[in-house]
Amino acid sequence: MRDPVTGFEYPDAWVRNCATPEDLPLIKAGLGVLTSSGTVLRRGYTTGTTAAAACKAAVISLSGPVSSVSVHIPCGLDIDVPVFGFAGTASCKKFAGDYPGDVTAGIEMKAEATPLPDGGIEFLPGDGIGRFSRDTPRFRKGDPAITPAPLACIRQSIREAAGQMGLPGARVRLSIPTGEDIAKKTLNPRVGVAGGISILGTTGLVEPWDDHLTESVLDRIASAHNPVITTGRTGLRFSRMLFPDREVILVGGKIGESLAVAQGEVTLSGLPALILKFIDPQILDGTGFKTVEELSCSQEFSRIVKSTLAKFRKDYPAVRVLIFNREGTVIGESP
Protein backbone atom coordinates (compact mmCIF):
# COMPACT_ATOMS: atom_id res chain seq x y z
CA MET A 1 0.00 0.00 0.00
CA ARG A 2 1.39 3.37 -1.06
CA ASP A 3 0.87 6.79 0.50
CA PRO A 4 -0.16 9.03 -2.44
CA VAL A 5 1.03 12.14 -0.58
CA THR A 6 4.58 11.14 0.36
CA GLY A 7 5.11 8.15 -1.93
CA PHE A 8 6.02 5.92 1.04
CA GLU A 9 5.32 2.21 0.54
CA TYR A 10 3.89 0.85 3.76
CA PRO A 11 5.45 -2.46 4.86
CA ASP A 12 3.05 -5.39 4.55
CA ALA A 13 3.45 -6.06 8.27
CA TRP A 14 2.13 -2.59 9.10
CA VAL A 15 -0.93 -3.18 6.93
CA ARG A 16 -1.58 -6.60 8.48
CA ASN A 17 -1.29 -5.11 11.97
CA CYS A 18 -3.78 -2.30 11.27
CA ALA A 19 -6.10 -2.14 14.28
CA THR A 20 -8.96 -0.66 12.25
CA PRO A 21 -9.01 -2.23 8.75
CA GLU A 22 -12.11 -0.21 7.91
CA ASP A 23 -9.87 2.88 7.95
CA LEU A 24 -7.45 1.56 5.30
CA PRO A 25 -9.35 3.41 2.52
CA LEU A 26 -8.24 6.63 4.24
CA ILE A 27 -4.64 5.54 3.72
CA LYS A 28 -5.20 4.74 0.05
CA ALA A 29 -6.88 8.12 -0.46
CA GLY A 30 -4.04 10.01 1.24
CA LEU A 31 -6.32 11.22 4.02
CA GLY A 32 -4.72 9.10 6.70
CA VAL A 33 -1.35 7.83 7.87
CA LEU A 34 -0.68 4.27 9.01
CA THR A 35 1.77 3.91 11.89
CA SER A 36 4.03 0.96 12.65
CA SER A 37 1.86 0.11 15.65
CA GLY A 38 -1.21 -0.31 13.43
CA THR A 39 -2.88 2.97 14.34
CA VAL A 40 -4.50 5.05 11.60
CA LEU A 41 -4.18 8.82 12.07
CA ARG A 42 -6.24 11.24 10.00
CA ARG A 43 -4.58 14.05 8.08
CA GLY A 44 -6.22 17.45 8.46
CA TYR A 45 -6.79 20.28 5.99
CA THR A 46 -4.50 23.27 5.76
CA THR A 47 -5.69 26.86 5.99
CA GLY A 48 -5.20 27.01 2.22
CA THR A 49 -7.52 24.07 1.56
CA THR A 50 -10.12 25.49 3.95
CA ALA A 51 -9.96 28.89 2.25
CA ALA A 52 -10.29 27.36 -1.22
CA ALA A 53 -13.34 25.35 -0.14
CA ALA A 54 -15.07 28.41 1.31
CA CYS A 55 -14.39 30.46 -1.82
CA LYS A 56 -15.58 27.74 -4.18
CA ALA A 57 -18.72 27.17 -2.14
CA ALA A 58 -19.54 30.88 -2.14
CA VAL A 59 -19.56 30.99 -5.94
CA ILE A 60 -21.56 27.77 -6.33
CA SER A 61 -24.09 28.94 -3.71
CA LEU A 62 -25.14 31.76 -6.03
CA SER A 63 -27.42 29.16 -7.61
CA GLY A 64 -28.50 27.32 -4.45
CA PRO A 65 -27.46 25.79 -1.10
CA VAL A 66 -24.11 23.96 -0.89
CA SER A 67 -23.00 21.46 1.75
CA SER A 68 -19.80 20.05 0.22
CA VAL A 69 -17.29 20.95 -2.48
CA SER A 70 -14.44 19.12 -4.17
CA VAL A 71 -11.06 20.85 -3.96
CA HIS A 72 -8.03 19.93 -6.07
CA ILE A 73 -5.25 20.43 -3.52
CA PRO A 74 -1.56 21.17 -4.30
CA CYS A 75 -0.36 17.56 -3.83
CA GLY A 76 -2.62 16.52 -6.71
CA LEU A 77 -5.48 14.90 -4.78
CA ASP A 78 -9.15 15.82 -5.04
CA ILE A 79 -10.87 15.95 -1.67
CA ASP A 80 -14.44 16.62 -0.56
CA VAL A 81 -14.69 19.35 2.07
CA PRO A 82 -17.83 20.06 4.14
CA VAL A 83 -19.08 23.65 3.80
CA PHE A 84 -22.19 25.72 4.35
CA GLY A 85 -23.12 27.95 1.46
CA PHE A 86 -26.21 29.94 0.54
CA ALA A 87 -26.99 32.94 -1.67
CA GLY A 88 -23.38 33.80 -2.47
CA THR A 89 -22.04 33.46 1.08
CA ALA A 90 -20.24 30.40 2.43
CA SER A 91 -18.26 29.26 5.43
CA CYS A 92 -15.87 26.40 6.10
CA LYS A 93 -14.34 25.25 9.38
CA LYS A 94 -10.79 23.95 9.37
CA PHE A 95 -10.49 20.23 10.05
CA ALA A 96 -7.31 19.45 12.00
CA GLY A 97 -7.40 15.67 11.71
CA ASP A 98 -5.45 13.93 14.47
CA TYR A 99 -2.90 16.70 14.94
CA PRO A 100 -3.35 17.81 18.57
CA GLY A 101 -1.07 20.84 18.26
CA ASP A 102 -3.02 22.64 15.51
CA VAL A 103 -3.91 26.05 17.00
CA THR A 104 -6.07 26.86 13.97
CA ALA A 105 -8.26 23.77 14.43
CA GLY A 106 -11.92 24.61 13.89
CA ILE A 107 -11.26 28.17 12.74
CA GLU A 108 -14.07 29.42 10.49
CA MET A 109 -13.44 31.08 7.15
CA LYS A 110 -16.17 33.06 5.41
CA ALA A 111 -16.39 33.95 1.74
CA GLU A 112 -18.70 36.27 -0.20
CA ALA A 113 -19.05 35.95 -3.97
CA THR A 114 -20.42 38.22 -6.67
CA PRO A 115 -20.59 37.54 -10.41
CA LEU A 116 -18.38 39.50 -12.81
CA PRO A 117 -20.37 39.85 -16.05
CA ASP A 118 -17.28 41.08 -17.93
CA GLY A 119 -15.24 38.03 -16.88
CA GLY A 120 -12.14 37.54 -14.78
CA ILE A 121 -11.33 36.00 -11.42
CA GLU A 122 -10.77 38.28 -8.44
CA PHE A 123 -9.76 37.11 -4.99
CA LEU A 124 -9.79 39.68 -2.18
CA PRO A 125 -8.18 38.76 1.17
CA GLY A 126 -10.13 40.47 3.95
CA ASP A 127 -10.18 40.80 7.73
CA GLY A 128 -8.43 38.14 9.78
CA ILE A 129 -5.86 37.32 7.10
CA GLY A 130 -2.43 38.52 8.13
CA ARG A 131 -0.35 40.98 6.15
CA PHE A 132 3.39 41.49 6.16
CA SER A 133 4.49 44.43 8.27
CA ARG A 134 7.87 44.68 6.50
CA ASP A 135 9.53 43.61 3.27
CA THR A 136 10.80 40.01 3.19
CA PRO A 137 12.69 38.04 0.54
CA ARG A 138 9.41 36.78 -0.96
CA PHE A 139 6.81 39.37 0.06
CA ARG A 140 6.47 43.12 0.19
CA LYS A 141 5.14 45.12 3.12
CA GLY A 142 1.34 45.05 3.04
CA ASP A 143 1.08 41.83 1.03
CA PRO A 144 -1.38 39.25 2.38
CA ALA A 145 0.33 36.32 4.11
CA ILE A 146 -0.71 33.74 1.54
CA THR A 147 1.95 31.48 0.09
CA PRO A 148 1.97 30.58 -3.64
CA ALA A 149 0.58 27.02 -3.49
CA PRO A 150 -2.62 27.86 -1.54
CA LEU A 151 -3.12 31.08 -3.51
CA ALA A 152 -3.07 29.09 -6.75
CA CYS A 153 -5.46 26.56 -5.21
CA ILE A 154 -7.89 29.31 -4.14
CA ARG A 155 -7.88 31.00 -7.53
CA GLN A 156 -8.30 27.68 -9.35
CA SER A 157 -11.21 26.75 -7.07
CA ILE A 158 -12.95 30.06 -7.83
CA ARG A 159 -12.32 29.56 -11.54
CA GLU A 160 -13.74 26.02 -11.44
CA ALA A 161 -16.83 27.19 -9.58
CA ALA A 162 -17.46 30.03 -12.04
CA GLY A 163 -17.17 27.60 -14.92
CA GLN A 164 -19.49 25.15 -13.21
CA MET A 165 -22.08 27.90 -12.79
CA GLY A 166 -21.64 29.19 -16.33
CA LEU A 167 -20.42 32.58 -15.07
CA PRO A 168 -18.02 34.74 -17.13
CA GLY A 169 -16.15 35.56 -13.91
CA ALA A 170 -16.44 35.98 -10.15
CA ARG A 171 -15.12 38.12 -7.32
CA VAL A 172 -14.67 36.50 -3.90
CA ARG A 173 -13.78 38.18 -0.63
CA LEU A 174 -12.45 35.92 2.13
CA SER A 175 -12.42 36.80 5.82
CA ILE A 176 -11.56 34.98 9.04
CA PRO A 177 -13.58 36.45 11.94
CA THR A 178 -11.28 35.10 14.69
CA GLY A 179 -8.08 35.30 12.64
CA GLU A 180 -6.52 38.21 14.47
CA ASP A 181 -7.01 36.59 17.88
CA ILE A 182 -5.82 33.15 16.77
CA ALA A 183 -2.74 34.70 15.15
CA LYS A 184 -1.47 35.72 18.59
CA LYS A 185 -0.97 32.00 19.32
CA THR A 186 1.13 31.48 16.19
CA LEU A 187 4.60 32.59 15.08
CA ASN A 188 3.15 35.40 12.94
CA PRO A 189 3.98 38.25 15.35
CA ARG A 190 7.62 37.08 15.40
CA VAL A 191 7.99 36.79 11.62
CA GLY A 192 6.45 40.14 10.78
CA VAL A 193 2.86 39.19 9.94
CA ALA A 194 0.16 41.31 11.60
CA GLY A 195 -3.62 41.39 11.72
CA GLY A 196 -4.43 37.72 11.25
CA ILE A 197 -3.31 34.21 10.41
CA SER A 198 -1.40 33.07 7.35
CA ILE A 199 -2.93 31.00 4.57
CA LEU A 200 -0.50 28.12 4.08
CA GLY A 201 -0.24 24.61 2.72
CA THR A 202 2.38 23.06 0.44
CA THR A 203 0.33 19.88 -0.05
CA GLY A 204 -3.09 20.98 1.18
CA LEU A 205 -3.00 18.47 4.04
CA VAL A 206 -1.74 18.66 7.63
CA GLU A 207 0.36 15.78 8.95
CA PRO A 208 -0.97 14.30 12.21
CA TRP A 209 2.25 14.71 14.19
CA ASP A 210 1.82 13.04 17.55
CA ASP A 211 3.67 10.42 19.56
CA HIS A 212 2.32 7.56 17.39
CA LEU A 213 3.46 9.11 14.12
CA THR A 214 6.81 10.16 15.58
CA GLU A 215 7.39 6.58 16.74
CA SER A 216 6.66 5.24 13.25
CA VAL A 217 8.98 7.76 11.62
CA LEU A 218 11.76 6.82 14.01
CA ASP A 219 11.14 3.13 13.29
CA ARG A 220 11.56 3.82 9.57
CA ILE A 221 14.80 5.72 10.16
CA ALA A 222 16.24 3.05 12.47
CA SER A 223 15.60 0.30 9.91
CA ALA A 224 16.77 2.28 6.86
CA HIS A 225 20.20 1.88 5.31
CA ASN A 226 21.88 5.26 4.82
CA PRO A 227 18.68 7.30 5.29
CA VAL A 228 18.09 10.80 3.99
CA ILE A 229 16.29 12.82 6.67
CA THR A 230 14.44 15.88 5.46
CA THR A 231 12.49 18.56 7.28
CA GLY A 232 9.75 19.51 4.81
CA ARG A 233 8.06 19.02 1.45
CA THR A 234 10.62 21.04 -0.50
CA GLY A 235 13.44 18.95 0.94
CA LEU A 236 11.48 15.78 0.28
CA ARG A 237 11.05 16.60 -3.40
CA PHE A 238 14.63 17.67 -4.09
CA SER A 239 16.17 14.94 -1.95
CA ARG A 240 14.33 12.28 -3.93
CA MET A 241 15.77 13.77 -7.10
CA LEU A 242 19.31 13.80 -5.68
CA PHE A 243 19.15 10.42 -3.93
CA PRO A 244 16.80 8.19 -5.98
CA ASP A 245 18.28 4.98 -4.54
CA ARG A 246 17.99 5.95 -0.88
CA GLU A 247 15.01 6.17 1.43
CA VAL A 248 14.04 9.80 2.05
CA ILE A 249 12.07 10.32 5.26
CA LEU A 250 10.12 13.43 6.25
CA VAL A 251 10.66 14.26 9.94
CA GLY A 252 9.48 17.85 10.30
CA GLY A 253 11.11 19.38 13.36
CA LYS A 254 12.05 16.00 14.92
CA ILE A 255 15.67 16.34 13.84
CA GLY A 256 17.39 15.45 17.10
CA GLU A 257 15.28 12.34 17.68
CA SER A 258 15.83 11.23 14.09
CA LEU A 259 19.61 11.60 14.15
CA ALA A 260 19.75 9.66 17.42
CA VAL A 261 18.41 6.48 15.77
CA ALA A 262 19.83 6.86 12.24
CA GLN A 263 22.55 4.44 11.13
CA GLY A 264 25.13 4.36 8.37
CA GLU A 265 25.78 7.32 6.10
CA VAL A 266 23.11 9.82 7.09
CA THR A 267 22.10 12.90 5.10
CA LEU A 268 20.10 15.76 6.62
CA SER A 269 18.47 17.96 4.00
CA GLY A 270 15.90 20.74 3.64
CA LEU A 271 15.30 24.47 3.68
CA PRO A 272 17.58 26.51 5.97
CA ALA A 273 15.33 27.49 8.87
CA LEU A 274 14.70 24.25 10.79
CA ILE A 275 18.15 22.81 10.15
CA LEU A 276 20.17 25.88 11.08
CA LYS A 277 18.06 26.65 14.15
CA PHE A 278 18.44 23.04 15.28
CA ILE A 279 22.21 23.30 14.98
CA ASP A 280 22.37 26.77 16.54
CA PRO A 281 19.17 28.02 18.22
CA GLN A 282 20.78 31.48 18.60
CA ILE A 283 21.83 31.77 14.97
CA LEU A 284 19.86 35.01 14.46
CA ASP A 285 21.24 36.73 17.55
CA GLY A 286 23.20 39.84 16.63
CA THR A 287 22.38 39.59 12.91
CA GLY A 288 19.56 42.13 12.88
CA PHE A 289 17.27 39.64 11.13
CA LYS A 290 14.10 38.12 12.55
CA THR A 291 13.93 35.04 10.30
CA VAL A 292 16.42 32.67 8.72
CA GLU A 293 14.83 33.37 5.33
CA GLU A 294 15.74 37.05 5.67
CA LEU A 295 19.25 36.11 6.82
CA SER A 296 19.64 33.87 3.75
CA CYS A 297 19.46 36.94 1.49
CA SER A 298 22.28 38.75 3.29
CA GLN A 299 25.95 38.85 2.40
CA GLU A 300 26.77 37.25 5.75
CA PHE A 301 24.73 34.11 5.11
CA SER A 302 27.42 32.05 3.39
CA ARG A 303 29.94 32.75 6.15
CA ILE A 304 27.44 31.95 8.91
CA VAL A 305 26.32 28.73 7.24
CA LYS A 306 29.89 27.61 6.64
CA SER A 307 30.90 28.07 10.28
CA THR A 308 27.63 26.57 11.57
CA LEU A 309 27.96 23.43 9.45
CA ALA A 310 31.63 23.08 10.34
CA LYS A 311 30.66 23.03 14.02
CA PHE A 312 27.90 20.51 13.33
CA ARG A 313 30.34 18.26 11.48
CA LYS A 314 32.46 17.97 14.62
CA ASP A 315 29.43 16.97 16.70
CA TYR A 316 27.95 14.65 14.03
CA PRO A 317 30.85 13.41 11.87
CA ALA A 318 28.71 10.75 10.14
CA VAL A 319 26.01 13.18 9.02
CA ARG A 320 26.14 15.14 5.79
CA VAL A 321 24.02 18.30 5.62
CA LEU A 322 22.52 19.76 2.44
CA ILE A 323 20.56 23.01 2.58
CA PHE A 324 18.38 23.98 -0.39
CA ASN A 325 16.65 27.16 -1.41
CA ARG A 326 13.08 26.95 -2.70
CA GLU A 327 14.30 26.42 -6.28
CA GLY A 328 16.33 23.37 -5.30
CA THR A 329 19.76 24.98 -5.46
CA VAL A 330 22.17 23.80 -2.76
CA ILE A 331 23.11 26.88 -0.71
CA GLY A 332 24.86 25.11 2.13
CA GLU A 333 26.76 21.83 2.46
CA SER A 334 28.83 20.11 5.12
CA PRO A 335 32.59 20.51 4.71
Key terms for this structure?
335 residues; alpha/beta; 6-stranded mixed β-sheet
Question: Could you outline the blueprint of secondary structure elements for this entry?
Answer:
Blueprint: H1 12-16, H2 24-29, E1 32-34, E2 40-42, E3 44-45, H3 47-60, E4 66-72, E5 78-86, E6 89-93, E7 108-115, E8 120-125, E9 128-129, E10 131-132, H4 148-165, E11 169-175, H5 179-183, H6 188-191, E12 193-194, E13 196-197, E14 205-206, H7 211-223, E15 228-230, H8 233-242, E16 248-250, H9 255-261, E17 266-270, H10 272-279, H11 292-295, H12 301-315, E18 319-324, E19 330-333
Parallel strand pairs: 8-11, 9-13, 15-16, 15-17, 17-18
Antiparallel strand pairs: 1-2, 3-14, 4-5, 5-6, 6-7, 7-11, 10-12, 18-19
Helix pairs in contact: 3-4
The general outline is: globular
Quaternary organization: single chain
Numbering strands along the chain, what is their spatial order in the largest sheet?
4-5-6-7-11-8
Radius of gyration: 21 Å
Class per helix and strand makeup? alpha/beta
Taking pLDDT < 50 over at least 5 consecutive residues as the criterion, the unreliable ranges are none
Amount of beta strand: 15-25%
Compute the average pLDDT. 93
Number of helices: 12
User: What can be said about the biggest beta sheet?
Assistant: 6 strands, mixed
N- to C-terminal separation?
Answer: 39 Å
Helix % is 25-40%
**Total beta-strand segments:** 19
What does this structure look like?
The chain has 335 residues and is α/β, with parallel strands linked by helices. Helix content is 33%, strand content 24%. It is built from 12 helices and 19 strands. A 6-stranded mixed sheet has the order 4-5-6-7-11-8, covered by helices on one side. The protein has a 5-stranded mixed sheet with strand order 16-15-17-18-19, with helices on both faces. The chain is globular. The relative contact order is 0.12. The mean pLDDT is 93.
